[in-house]
C-alpha cells in the first residue's frame, strides 16, 4: 500500500524534497501519487506533523 497524507498536513514542504521518486505534490494539503510511491517510508519519517502513514 502506498503512503498517504492525512488532514494533519500543514503543507510545510518538508517531505517533498525527501521523496526519492518525486511522488509528492504540493497543495493546500500535500498528496502522494500512489502509482509512483515505492513505500520506502522516508516521508513519514521526516513529517513534523506525523501526517503521513501507510494507507
Ligand atoms: Fe516517496 Fe517513499 Fe513517501 Fe512513497 S513512501 S511518497 S516513495 S518518500
Automatic annotation (TrEMBL):
<feature type="domain" description="4Fe-4S ferredoxin-type">
    <location>
        <begin position="1"/>
        <end position="25"/>
    </location>
</feature>
<keyword id="KW-0411">Iron-sulfur</keyword>
<keyword id="KW-0408">Iron</keyword>
<dbReference type="InterPro" id="IPR000813">
    <property type="entry name" value="7Fe_ferredoxin"/>
</dbReference>
<keyword id="KW-0004">4Fe-4S</keyword>
<keyword id="KW-0479">Metal-binding</keyword>
<dbReference type="GO" id="GO:0009055">
    <property type="term" value="F:electron transfer activity"/>
</dbReference>
<comment type="function">
    <text>Ferredoxins are iron-sulfur proteins that transfer electrons in a wide variety of metabolic reactions.</text>
</comment>
<keyword id="KW-0813">Transport</keyword>
<dbReference type="Pfam" id="PF00037">
    <property type="entry name" value="Fer4"/>
</dbReference>
<dbReference type="GO" id="GO:0046872">
    <property type="term" value="F:metal ion binding"/>
</dbReference>
<dbReference type="InterPro" id="IPR017900">
    <property type="entry name" value="4Fe4S_Fe_S_CS"/>
</dbReference>
<dbReference type="GO" id="GO:0051539">
    <property type="term" value="F:4 iron, 4 sulfur cluster binding"/>
</dbReference>
<dbReference type="InterPro" id="IPR017896">
    <property type="entry name" value="4Fe4S_Fe-S-bd"/>
</dbReference>
<protein>
    <recommendedName>
        <fullName>Ferredoxin</fullName>
    </recommendedName>
</protein>
<keyword id="KW-0249">Electron transport</keyword>
<dbReference type="InterPro" id="IPR050157">
    <property type="entry name" value="PSI_iron-sulfur_center"/>
</dbReference>
<feature type="domain" description="4Fe-4S ferredoxin-type">
    <location>
        <begin position="28"/>
        <end position="55"/>
    </location>
</feature>
Amino acid at each position: 500500500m502506498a503512503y498517504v497524507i492525512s488532514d494533519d498536513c500543514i503543507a510545510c514542504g518538508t517531505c517533498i524534497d525527501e521523496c526519492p521518486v518525486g511522488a509528492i505534490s504540493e497543495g493546500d494539503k500535500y498528496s502522494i501519487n500512489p502509482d509512483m510511491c515505492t513505500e520506502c517510508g522516508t516521508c513519514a519519517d521526516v513529517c513534523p506533523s506525523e501526517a503521513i502513514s501507510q494507507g
